[in-house]
Amino acid sequence: MLVLDDLDRGLIHALQVDARAPFTLVADVLGISTQTVVRRYRRLYAQAGLRVVTLPAPRSSGTHQWFVRLTAATRTAHDIAVALARRPDTSWVRLTSGGTEIVAIIHTTPAGPDAHALLLRDIPRTAGITAVSAHYLLHTYVGGPTAWRGRVDSLDAAQQARLRAESGANPGPEPAPGAPAYLLTDADRLLLDALRDDARISYADLAAATGSTASTAARRLGELRARNALFFDVDIDPALLGVTVSALLWMQVAPVHLDDVAGALAGHEELALVAATTGPTNLVAHALCRDAEELHHYLTRKVALDAIARIETAPVLRTYKTAATLRTA
Questions:
Q1: Helices marked H in 51-202 — which ranges?
Q2: Rounded CA gap, 320 and 329, in Å?
Q3: Closest Cα to residue 91, out of 228, 235, 201?
Q4: Residues forming a β-bridge with 285
Q5: What share of the chain is helix, strand, coil (3-state, %, to 5)?
Q6: Three-class SS of residue 179?
Q7: Contacts of 247 (CB under 8 A, 6+ apart)
Q8: How far apart, in Å, are the Cα atoms of 20 and each of 167, 174, 222, 246, 261?
Q9: In this predicted model, what pLDDT tens digit does every residue of 83-130 receive, in sequence order?
Q10: How much is the pTM?
């Protein structure tokens, strides 16, 4: 397996700060040549599965997100997970709990005859699935636009500030509580589709994909960023960052304590996701640890909060799909 050094980690952090920052700027911030940055990026792309993707902000997408837990026979779980991963309306498809549970995020439209077809019709009819539970995602504390700290710990504050200032990466202000979010138009979605698998696509290629001009594509992308209608994510195998143990934590917290508990967990560097959901377990987290001992230490020393009534730990055995990238090889 490829071993990442400080330069690789610095590049990954820089791309998380601004996925579209020019390599000349990234090189200057890192104190190396542009040719070295380009060479390292291409190596990470080819050998480490690095992908820089673009995703709609949840409030702007006009869709709902559901955590779905499927119980399936071991002999069929792999095929079901692969089928789910290939769908455009899914993300974060994982096999957990000894190979008998599939966990995925499903994106649904809020209305229409096929709004919840996958949840209500397709999944229940799938042979081999013996149980289904769906948890509506209410609020994300860590995850999505907020990156896991394990891959954004290389650049200091001054380097990050310079990247944002010189690349124009500063987002606009968040909408006031209760204020309506900007909803993506069909033209916006066309632009996002072109950026989805490669956030660094050139403005010329964006123009060709959207039937516009490079200047129009650049202006529209800048407007969407200013409206916080999209975000960039860096997709790379956590194992390359030293993670060998991954687990989903399903927690039951009294609603009156939910926000305080989630806020406390959001400050833990071990967690790549903290989200409030509906259901008997109303808080889910994704822990990434160096080994089993570190996970044990985390569960017994840091996450042992009195307000958590129950916690279920489900080790992740395999990831078939991340935010946008298939990993079915």
A1: 58-61, 74-85, 117, 157-167, 186-195
A2: 8
A3: 235
A4: 249, 274
A5: 40, 25, 35
A6: coil
A7: 286, 287, 289, 295, 313, 314, 315, 316
A8: 8, 21, 11, 29, 35
A9: 899 988 899 999 998 889 999 999 988 766 665 666 656 776 777 888
A10: 0.88
